[in-house]
Amino acid sequence: MDGGVRVDLRGRQALVTGGARGLGASITRGLAGAGASVLVADVRKEQARELCEELAQDGRDARFVELDVRDSRAVAEVFQELERDGQAVDVLVNNAAVDVSKPIEHLTAEEVTRVVTTNLLGPMYLCLEVYRRMVARGGGHIVNILSTASNRTWTEAGPYAAGKSGLRAFTHTLFKEAQRDCPGIGVTGIIAGGMETPFILERFPDADVSMLQSPDIVADTVLYALSVPVGSAVSELVVVPRKEPSWP
User: Fold this and answer.
1) pTM of the predicted protein model
2) How far apart are CA 91 and CA 38, in angstroms?
3) Active-site residue among 125, 131, 160, 224?
4) pLDDT (tens digit per residue) in 218-245
């Protein structure tokens, strides 16, 4: 990716959930390209390791961390291990997400639980672990990837919209608390419209890709959020394709 945003992240460590493919991989490449050491947190071992090897060949620093964000104990253990190794997470990007596109009358409790736990509770677990550590260090940045579904929903999107709406509310609250607790901490929610990624194309193989945007554009938006000086704050950004049908 060679976007227009320039930010120097040398000496900083980032963690990207769902970082092995799609938008997560674009964000990982962008952060690594800006000089960050990137922890690729995912359940997809092979894809994550392939991405890390690709970045290593380009002289970038990335390593795989196996993590299911639905497991609060596993999330805590990742941060405890980093702490034991004298490492910190300076940038957290909560990107991991799933969806089940079904009418509400056909959804199962298991499907609802999987979507809401991954898309809402998982990011909250990560924030609980990283935020207090950022306060103690006096700085850092949390980026939560939202969706147009956090503002306006559609049919067959009940659990997904509920999770993303909840994450947007949580992100706004965390932003306000960071203003109070530590001016060195940035908190940004990024409302992203449809992207040409497996997240959409695996479920909707006949989707009109001309209506979708590149995930690299959204990754550049993440870098922009990180480029803003400490004296300013970007609480929320919206980046959608020109023809996005679900916005505003």
Assistant:
1) 0.95
2) 9
3) 160
4) 999 999 999 999 889 999 999 999 989 8
